[in-house]
Structure formats: C-alpha cells, structure tokens
Amino acid sequence: MTALAPQPLSPLDGRYRDAVAGLSEYLSEAGLNRARVEVEVEWLITLTDRGLFGTSPMADADKERLRGLYRDFGPDEIAWLAAKEAVTHHDVKAVEYLVRDRLAALGLDAVAELTHFACTSEDVNSASYALTVQRAVLQVWLPKLREVIAVLDAMARTHADAAMLARTHGQPATPTTMGKELAVFAWRLRRVADQIDSGEFLAKFSGATGTWSAHLAADPEVDWPALSQEFIEGLGIGFNPLTTQIESHDWQVELYDRARHAGGILHNLATDAWTYISLGYFAQIPVAGATGSSTMPHKINPIRFENAEANLEISGGLFATLASTLVTSRMQRDLTDSTTQRNIGVAFGHSLLALDNLLRGLDSISLSRDVLLADLDANWEVLAEAIQTVVRAEITAGNSQISDPYALLKELTRGHRVGAAELAEFVQGLDISDAAKQRLLALTPAGYTGLASRLVP
User: What's the whole-model pTM score?
Assistant: First the structure.
C-alpha cells in the first residue's frame, strides 16, 4: 500500500480547519512565538526608554522597525525559529536569537545584550500565554459564545408565548413556553460569559525564582518590581508579583473551569434541542442537496447538535485536564505545564467547533406550534396541580371542607389520562366557591403557563 503524504492528524487542522482558523492566529505554535517576540521587543524598548545601563531611548522610527518583528511575523520567522530550535533544543532561546539577529540587521546591535535581559524563559512565556489566550478568548471564542446567546435571546422572544408541555423526569408536567426554556439557557450562558469576560490574564516578570535577584545584581537602585509591573500592564495584561519561577497559572485554572462550565450548559442545550426535535417540537429545515441517511431518503438527522455534543465532551475533558494539571508545579518549577499549555488551542478549538455547530443547528430548525398544542391537548391531567392548589387555598379561606386535596387529585389523575370533559365534571363537583370553580373551568393546558411569557427578557 502506498504511504500517504503527511496529513493533519487532528481534525481541527483537517476537516474542521475553517471553523477554528481564528484561534490558530493566537493559540498555534507560531502564534505563541509571535507573542514571545512581542514580549522580548517591548522589554528591550522599555529598558532603553529608561536609559538603563547607559543606553538612550530609541528613535521612534527604530522602535517601529523593531516592532515590525512581531507585527510582520510570518513564514520567514517561523522557518528561522524552527531551524534554530533544532540546534538549541530550547524554544525561548531560539526566540532570543531571532531578536538578536534582527537587531543586527536593523543596525541596532548596540543594545543586543539587553535582549532577554534578566529574564527566565517563564517570564517571556507567562506574558506570551497571557497575551495569546486573552486575545483568542476575547476576540474569537467569547464573541462566538455571545453569538449563540444572541440567537437564543431572539428565539426566546419569538417563542415567548409558545405554550408547550414541560417534561420533568421525562414525564408530562406543568406547561411552560418554548421561549422561556430557551431564555433559561441564554441567562445561564450570559452569566458565565460575563465571568469569563471579567477574568484576569496574569503574567510574572521577576526572574529565575521570582526574586528579581539578577536584576538587583545588575542595578540595585532600580525599583524592578515597579518597572516589571508597569511593563506587564503596558502589554494589556495583569501582573502577578509573587511567584516561583513560573506564574502560578491560577488565572488559567479559573478560565478553563469557566469555559468547561459554559460547555456543560451548551451540552445541555444540545441534548435538549435534539430531544425537542425527536418529539417533533422543532422541525428541521431541509437543505437542498443534503443527505440525511445513506439508505433512508426521508431522514434529516440532527447532526449539528450531535456534533456539538461530542465536541463539547472532548473540550470539557481537555479543560478539566488543563485545570487540574496547571494548578500544580513541583517546588519552584517543573515542566509539566509546558506540554499541557500547548493543548490550550485544542481545548478551545473543539469548543469553538461546537459553538459553530450549535449556531448552524439553531438556524436550521423551526418551531412546530401545532405539535406543541396537540401534545398539550393530550395531557389535561397536568391541570391537577392547579386544581389541588386552588382547593387548598379555598380550605384555608374557609370555603371548603375537603380534607386532603392532593390525595383527591392523585386518585383522579395518577396513571390515568384525563380529558377536558372529565376534569370539568370533577371541578363542578368540588366543594369550593363558584368563583374558584369558574377560574378552574376556564383553564386549559395551553393556558396554564403562569408568567412564562413574561419571564423572557
């Protein structure tokens, strides 16, 4: 058998590449290296701006040329770094050499020794991961999550008054509306999205064991913690002043737990949408040319929700692994976080793919109100709750001598299908006031939705 040419091993880089491409701008190896170059360049500019060690601030034109190293980062830099790392066997050192090489090409080699000055690799890495994860989450992943929320909001408003039979424990229960049920998902997701939006993205910049020892050895007069904080916050991320060699990753643990939480809610949405389709509550809109089954021509399968469900399970597992692994580092540093963090993009990739499928799925269904109404009309026994509650109120008000209204309704309805006529006859025979009887006789399953429609924002 002829061997295949090298192919993407991950479906995220193959079959589903277009759906997750936005994340690779930040969470790929190239995206990480570009951020590392950014951190190295900006630290160099910061040191010279302060005139440290006899330097002078660079001319604005030189700063812009230097910043071009990361702004124009592309195939040439990617190839250069790959070749250099093959020699150094150290990714961050390769980035340092790249910056030094470009400084010489720009005629700025007089300040080359300030490249990576007093830094441990994890100073650069923590800032780079904070930048790349922040940008990926806030610019790609979170906007897609908010798209799903916006669609749910719109559907909730459209279907706010669409009465449907609730199913608690899978059994007929007090009616609700489809809009209110969709609004529940939107509310849950918005809450978690807001938590993620307000979360921290932290970096450290304090040297080999978080003590600024080398910095003080070079110049004990500089307030290095203050300068480091100013530098990190100038990048648009938060500063962690108290660390070991690594930034402790607690902000990442919080983020991945929240992303996993959002994924759990989305998984619940996917399974509920799938179930509503199976009940006929939602009809799937046919797509011209699409095939549902290779052998059953009539079928339209809810594949978007099934795909979302599977990808959310994968991303949830990865987020859980990221959170549980990154929270621990032996003593002042071990390397377990290095490989772990390289899978951040994989976790968000499967989550983003799920969001994309949910959006497509929600866009391809329409509510079958006639099915909802037929289902309600076949389950008049759900009004038993209303009847026994009204009877209890009547007993309390002194308008009834009934001794156990719950047992009375249980005997009438449990395990039985009761229609409109039977319930009306039952209500007519109750020992309650005429006003209470009229309220109950006016009830229908479709009208017994309480404040559901008004709960939709």
Answer: 0.91
